[in-house]
Specification:
Number of helices: 7
CATH topology of the largest domain: Heat Shock Protein 90
Shape: elongated
Strand content: 5-15%
Structural class: alpha+beta
CATH class of the largest domain: Alpha Beta
Distance between the termini: 53 Å
CATH architecture of the largest domain: 2-Layer Sandwich
Amino acid sequence: MNEKIKVSTTRLDNLINMTGELVIAQLMVTEEVNTTLVSEHELSRKVAHQSKIVRELQELAMLMRMVPIHGVFQKMTRLIRDLSHKAGKNIDFITSGEETELDRTVVDKIADPLIHMVRNSIDHGIESSEERIKAGKNPAGRIELRAYHQAGNIVIEIEDDGKGLDKEHILKKAVDNGIVEAGQELSDEEIFKLVFHAGLSTAR
């Protein structure tokens, strides 16, 4: 049976800190054994066993901080439903990888950037149903949110099938909001990165 309990974050952080100190202490003991007591086979065997326990304890302590990203995905589902209704746009929201686990502190920090990117997709990425029909697209726009493991990292992607970024519109909004100066020379990449600025709304 997979039972779950709530753990105080303070106690959890203390456990992780203590585990880190234990790892350091264990490394010091191991170094001492390797340099002065190599012939003591039994002691070396016990230290090796201690090393195994410490590694397992450290892994367990870190796993206690891991939580599924499912809660953030649910928040995005509600957000897209509300924003698409206000914008008068039909949007299908597709998710995958909801059970991917991240450190709880990372999960807490990624919600705001994801909200900003979702707003950008709805504001200036996804067209109205009329525009999409004229362009030969499905009347309903699509936003996909994915989380997955790749080469030891966690990748989170947002993709929409809208018309893309309007460079001139983004730059004009940035100038109007005082984020960049009029006439300032910016590369396309620098202009596109402006959509991540917290003070910039690209809604028309």
